[in-house]
Write a structure and sequence with these properties.
Strand order of the largest sheet of chain B: 6-7-8-3-9-10
CATH topology of the largest domain in chain B: Rossmann fold
Structural class of chain A: mainly alpha
Shape of chain A: globular
Number of strands of chain B: 20
Strand order of the largest sheet of chain A: 1-2
CATH class of the largest domain in chain B: Alpha Beta
Largest sheet of chain A: 2 strands, antiparallel
Number of helices of chain A: 13
CATH topology of chain A: MetI-like fold
Distance between the termini of chain A: 37 Å
Largest interface: A-B, 32 and 46 residues
CATH architecture of chain A: Orthogonal Bundle
CATH class of chain A: Mainly Alpha
Strand content of chain B: 25-35%
CATH superfamily of the largest domain in chain B: P-loop containing nucleotide triphosphate hydrolases
Order of helices and strands of chain A: HEEHHHHHHHHHHHH
CATH architecture of the largest domain in chain B: 3-Layer(aba) Sandwich
Helix content of chain B: 10-25%
Helix content of chain A: over 70%
Oligomer: heterodimer
Chain lengths: 300, 356
């Protein structure tokens, strides 16, 4: 195997100076388009966030008012108490479990979806999005009926002799509700990622002695990773901060961070503590997201 | 070389819903030959190749590779590898990992994988690019990675699906000759799918011409070009003039406008045939006197002249028929103008009679 084939031309080099200049000119016009949403985000997102940040260093007055003086980090030191840790660990656990279940259930569905004819695909995509047409709160209350000890699920288990099921207000109910609520956010990015994969690559892997299973793990799975990462973030983050679902389907033993933060503001009237907690949770989410993107960045 | 066919197709058909993509193909591809499947797009050549690879399964018929039945065997259990039309390189893997893929799937030792990948990359002159990603390579380089990725497995048969289609003309012509050299060096049977007749003629030991799912003719490039057995083959391979005519007997053939020409045929008198005349076998002469003795000659008028540099083509009208004539552009060769009256003439043996 000593002889060689003809050398091909080298890979084409990047853009010229002219193209660079054209790109710069385009980027200037882009500023005007970005301005309105930028203003909107600064006023309604960045500013309130800043206020939360400032409040987290304030002091709670004896009657629950917030004293904007005497700045300190007491709220942050209180984050280390056992109750906060318990709630944080529980929230992360529920969110991880929700993400894992969503991924396991959504992947085969998204794969099926991505490999159908376009017409079938569109119908299925609409079906995925139908739940969004009714209110999340309403749908969560519907789960309450489904899971209650007099509900259809319980009736069914009673009918086949397994006795009543008492799922409502348990961790199972909360995770079930979260999975139900956030599944579409997993399916859609997965679908988008798998749909982009050239099925010819799977054929190439099969031609190169890979069984169907190995072709999946060596080709399809790594190439769908952008979708896995995006979907996982889109499910994990809102699950971690979930408020409605644990409030409606959970009980006192299933309190998650979202509910706990709301309680600081509305019942405990401890705004500095609530602010500090909010901020730390957000920072943790951001850090986790960046880390996740970094590790998956190779395939993005 | 063994007497057993490298690839044997017996009555292989493939239907997609109600479309017959491949229709009862019977074919023996010999050990060590460069065999091309040639035909227009949609003729079933790629589907045939994919059935040999195991990426499609025949609706009926059987396929064997060196005597082993491939029937219903999945692609990963077949001793063949494919170079895909779009290369199908794994975008998330380096050049090295792409080429190593097949060896790793067969669980070869780390050292052997490294050695064989190195050899294969040397063969295609990509040594030193092991750590590149496919998108960092030019089209020609990607094509060679695809080739190395298949050849590294030392398949019994290498299947190539229009592998040069995406390359520019110069590179493609260079690669045609190199591929042919490579094939005789490694001694592997190549089955090459192309719609480019020139490519097929350049590289192949034998060619199978396909159209509408059927294998029309199998033969050497000379067979296919000089002795086409059907109008479609004559038309598809190279430029040709196709004239419908009727056999009169005694070597006489009547064109549809009643002009009589001479050509050899075994078709009985009265049968309808197609007379095929290659443009480069036709000649033009200014007068009767210039016509070579024993040639068929027809009175004609030049209706078009196209200057091609190394040749000049003329369209000439004779009676009801239009003939294309290709003359080598050589010194002393007469030039003719549009509207000029000429004699178009050819040796009787140059005309091939094909049954309709």
């Amino acid at each position: 195997m000593a002889q060689t084939l003809v050398p091909g031309p080298e890979a084409p080099s990047g853009g010229s100076a002219l193209e660079d200049r054209a790109a710069r000119a385009r980027s200037r016009t882009g500023l005007w388009i970005a301005l309105p949403p930028a203003v909107y985000l600064v006023l309604l997102f960045a500013m309130p966030l800043l206020i939360v940040f400032v409040y987290s260093f304030a002091t709670r007055g004896s009657s629950g008012q917030t004293i904007l003086a005497d700045w300190n980090v007491a709220a942050y030191t209180r984050l280390f108490n056992p109750l906060v840790r318990e709630i944080a660990v529980r929230s992360v656990g529920y969110a991880l479990l929700t993400t894992a279940i969503c991924l396991a259930v959504s992947y085969p569905f998204a794969y099926y979806l991505a490999t159908r004819a376009l017409r079938v695909r569109n119908v299925l995509l609409v079906l995925v999005m139908i739940p969004f047409w009714s209110n999340f709160l309403v749908r969560t209350y519907a789960w309450r009926l489904l899971l209650s000890s007099s509900g259809p699920l319980s009736q069914l288990t009673e009918l086949i002799g397994l006795g009543q099921t008492r799922l409502l207000f348990t961790p199972v109910a909360v995770v079930l509700g979260l999975v139900y609520g956030y599944m579409p956010f997993m399916i859609l990015p997965l679908y988008a990622a798998i749909e982009r994969i050239d099925l010819g690559l799977v054929e190439a892997a099969r031609d190169l002695y890979a069984s169907g299973t190995r072709a999946f793990w060596r080709v399809t799975w790594p190439l769908s990773r952008p979708g896995v990462i995006a979907g996982s973030i889109l499910v994990f983050i809102p699950s971690l901060g979930a408020y409605v679902t644990p409030e409606i389907l959970g009980g006192s033993k299933t309190t998650m961070l979202g509910s706990y933060i709301v309680r600081q503001f509305l019942s405990a009237r401890d705004w500095p503590f609530g602010s500090a907690l909010s901020f730390v949770v957000m920072a943790a989410m951001l850090a986790a997201t960046l880390l996740y993107f970094r590790t998956g960045g190779r395939t993005l | 070389m063994s007497d057993v066919a490298a690839v044997q197709l017996r009555g292989v058909s493939k239907r997609f819903d109600d479309v017959t993509a491949v229709d009862a193909v019977v074919l023996d591809i010999r050990d060590g030959e460069f065999f091309s499947l040639l035909g227009p797009s949609g003729c079933g050549k790629t589907t045939t190749l994919r059935m040999i690879a195991g990426l499609e399964f025949p609706t009926s018929g059987s396929i064997s590779v060196f005597g082993e039945q491939m029937h219903l065997r999945p692609p990963n259990k077949r001793p063949v590898n494919t170079v895909f039309q779009s290369y199908a390189l794994f975008p998330h893997m380096t050049v090295h990992d792409n080429v190593a893929f097949g060896l790793q799937m067969r669980r070869l030792g780390r050292d052997e994988v490294r050695r064989r990948v190195g050899d294969a990359l040397e063969l295609v002159q990509l040594t030193g690019r092991e750590q590149r990603r496919p998108n960092q390579l030019s089209g020609g380089q990607q094509q060679r990675v695809a080739l190395a990725r298949a050849l590294v497995n030392e398949p019994k048969v290498l299947l190539l699906d229009e592998p040069l289609g995406a390359l520019d003309l110069k590179l493609r012509q260079a690669m045609q000759l190199e591929l042919k050299d490579l094939q005789s060096r490694v001694g592997i049977t190549f089955v090459y799918v192309t719609h480019d007749q020139e490519e097929a003629l350049t590289m192949s030991d034998r060619i199978g011409v396909m159209d509408a799912g059927r294998l029309l003719q199998v033969g050497t490039p000379e067979d296919i070009y000089e002795r086409p057995t059907s109008p479609m083959v004559a038309d598809f391979i190279g430029d040709t003039n196709l004239l419908t005519a009727t056999v009169k007997g005694d070597g006489q053939i009547a064109l549809d406008d009643a002009q009589i020409v001479h050509a050899e045929t075994r078709e009985p008198a009265g049968s309808r045939i197609v007379l095929t005349l290659r443009p480069e076998r036709l000649h033009l002469a200014a007068t009767d006197d210039d016509v070579d003795p024993g040639h068929n000659a027809l009175d004609a008028t030049v209706t078009r002249r196209v200057y091609l540099g190394n040749a000049v083509t003329y369209d000439v009208r004779s009676g009801e028929v239009t003939l294309r004539v290709r003359q080598r552009n050589a010194p002393g060769r007469g030039q003719f103008a549009v509207g000029e009256a000429v004699q178009v003439h050819w040796a009787s043996g140059s005309a091939v009679v094909v049954a309709r």
